[in-house]
Amino acid sequence: MADFLDFEMLARIQFAFTISFHILFPSFTIGLASWLAVLEWRWLKTGNPAFADVYRMWVKIFAVTFGMGVVSGVVMSFQFGTNWSVFSDRTGNIIGPLLGYEVLTAFFLEASFLGVMLFGWNRVSPRLHFAATIIVAAGTLISAFWILSANSWMQTPQGAEIGPDGLFYPTDWLAIIFSPSFPYRFVHMVVAAYLTTAFVVAGIGAFYLFRGRHAPQARVMLGMAMIMAIFVAPAQLLFGDLHGLNTFKHQPAKVAAMEGLWETRRGAPLKLFGWPDQEAETTRWSIEIPKLSSMILTHDLDGEVRGLKEWPRDELPPVALVFWTFRIMVGLGMLMILTGLMALVLYWRKRLFDTRLFQLWCMALTPAGFVAVLAGWFVTEVGRQPWIVQGLMRTADALSPVNAGAIGVSLAAFVVTYLFIFGAGTFYILHLIAKGPETEEETYGDHGLKTPVVLGAASAPKGGGYV
Amino acid sequence: MFDFSGLIDLPLVWYVLILTAVLLYVVLDGFDLGLGILFPLAPTDQCRDRMMNSVAPFWDGNETWLVLGGGGLLAAFPLAYAILMPALYLPVILMLLGLIFRGVAFEFRFKAKRSRPIWDWSFHLGSLTAAFMQGMIVGALIQGVVVVERGFAGGPMDWASPFTLTTGVGLVFGYGLLGATWTVMKTEGETRAWARRSTVWLLGLAGVSLAAVTIAIPAINAQIGQMWGSRPGIYLLAAVPAVAALLLVMAWVDLRAGREARPFLLVIAFFVTGYLALGLTLWPWIVPYAVTFRQAAAAGSSQSLLLVGTLVLLPVILVYTGFCYYLFRGKASHAHAGAY
Q1: Is A393 helix (H, G, I), strand (E, B) or coil?
Q2: Contacts of A409 in chain B (CB under 8 A)
Q3: In chain A, is it the N or the C terminus that has fewer CB atoms within a 10 Å radius of its CB?
Q4: Candidates 1.10.3470, 1.20.1630, 1.20.58, 3.30.1890; correct CATH number of B10-327?
């Protein structure tokens, strides 16, 4: 039995590792693709070359990130089978078509038009190139739609029944695709991706301004990012709250873990901090605001919130992990809102682009979105344990008949590979950032970049290693 | 709930669709994996730049067919997916790791300066590993998979044997041949001259590999031996090697005549021939020799839902994939350019 538990843990760690790494890339590229589309539109509309310079710099970063997202994503499409084959067998009727639609509606679109976006600059008209950028951006959103639909069904399953053979059978596709948590999860995640990108862009823009480099382009970056911080960061608080209320309705144990609440009670306090002790079934050293939890979750100061003791012990998630990752996510969200407020004040005082302290602040928050996204996914994924399909199928019953040695070897191989590959990718991205945007003249003049990638070799000037 | 089970033979349609997706993957990613296999043998760095540029706009789309194969298998035949992934755990993971190393090389290689050799080798070894593992997976399928009830019940190393080693090496040569003929078509000058010379060797190696695998199959599996020894299997056994050999000879003649595109197309035809022969031999198994495609089929409603999307979207995908190949037609340069 002990061996079996270790094996389950290994399989979960391996899956958590590959999917956590993977989610970093889409979190960034979903936002980046949409932003690139906006940049290209502004450029075509205004003719301001700063937009084109910024586009050209960030499309390189997009290409590197997207490449890493593709290769880590191909891994995911096989991991359902390698690690969770019983899950694949039992829920294939439901999950399979959703993933199939993701490939058909999004992956091919992104992959094909990415080629046009990256290499078609001189082969197609500006209009068609712009269309390619928009198509890639749309592809990232469609992809998010399907994969979050599949995930949401696992969190709040409906529209299916379990047959006598133990397999799930669909009874209502619309109910499956639009399961109760899906609209909230989709909006919350896409907005999170937008904010992740905004804070990366803000940090880099601030870095250039701090160093006194590339001022016109850096202002575009910081300015556009702050529009997101001012308007979208507060909206995310609202979306997150609605998502939380939806979770409270459908997965109350997860919310109890997020709140660190053990006893069911009316007028439940909001615990700002504390240490949930799973053994003792209590949260130690908590700092509380009276009645606030009830207020948020039930919109009534004396509303009832169910505590963790309502559920059998073997139906509880690891509470401390959920409790803390939730606080990390919310805390970072608050810092983002604060950034927006600071930007607003500085904008009114006409000091947005030359306040050094604010530039340092933005630089410090560069990775904030990534950390918040990962923390949020930990909350929702760890928080639904021990279920792989909420209430219907346990994670422990979903495992593949693979031996622990094979999983251990693959885990080690993934860790080494990912650290090396994605470390190198990060290095090249930092290198691109250090180099900064190139102005129109440089780009076309020095490097012969009017030269398309595929052409008669005789006319191609030497320029192979420039990027 | 809509369900076309009564109207059409859904499992059969899906079996054909999945096999088609895998065939498209083999041909399309085959040539860019083949490029990676041949990479260190190219005479100069400039040749390598050209080879890389000739597939840079396409590799991502090509690899998507693999994701469709995997995702489609899960959707249409979840039981097969659930048995095969654990059965082929290590080769699948090694293939994925190989694909990671080669996939990132497309972007990293042109960003790197001193570290460029690392990404050259990453591209080469990644492609080689992915191709070799895919070949071993094919071999492991021909060998058969141990199944008890609804799960894989064999050992973690069942897939490794002298036979799968042969199929692995064979596919490496086959992909190399696709890559070499692609390079003949998409480059010129010394790169093309080198690719021509390589093609001649690889035509022989691929031919020998196919022959070796064909001879070995009846030896490792008596059932197939019996099927090939009697009608109608004997016609297959007689026709396929003849057609395959003819296609390779035609490719060789074309190459000598200085044709550039036809050798590539003939090698594709060679792959299609071998693939069809294998498909007919393994029919109707989806997990050889334990689960047929009918036994593994998903619920009629699930297969119907995805079929609607596939019938609408697959033609669209083929059109814009074709558009991309048309857009980037012509010979590849060694300069890294494009949007940058």
Answers
A1: strand
A2: 90
A3: N
A4: 1.20.1630
What ipTM, to 2 d.p.? 0.88
> Cα–Cα distance between A259 and A272 in angstroms, integer?
9
Alpha-helical segments (H) within A124-279: 126-155, 173-177, 182-211, 215-250, 252-259
Tell me: pLDDT of A443 over 60. no
Three-state DSSP state, A170: strand
User: In b/e form, how buried is each residue of B142-176, taking b as 16+ CB within 10 angstroms?
Assistant: bbbbebeebbbebebebbbeebbebbbbbbbbbbb
> Cβ distance A61 to A36 under 8 Å?
no
> Residue ranges per domain, chain B?
10-327
Mark yes or no for CB contact A92/B53 under 8 Å: no
The shortest CB-CB distance from A82 to any of B93, B107, B188 is to: B93
Distances from the Cα of A267 to the Cαs of A236, A238, A300, A338, B166, in angstroms? 26, 22, 8, 29, 70
Beta strands in B121-184 (DSSP E): 147-148, 151-152
Q: What is the DSSP letter of B336?
A: -
Checking if the pLDDT of B53 tops 60, the result is: yes
pLDDT digits (tens, 9 = 90+) for A48-83: 888 989 998 999 999 999 989 988 988 888 888 888
Please indicate if any CB of chain B lies within 8 Å of the CB of A25.
no
Cβ A454–B189 below 8 Å, yes or no? no
Reduce the secondary structure of A422-438 to three states and give it as a string.
HHHHHHHHHHHHHHCCC
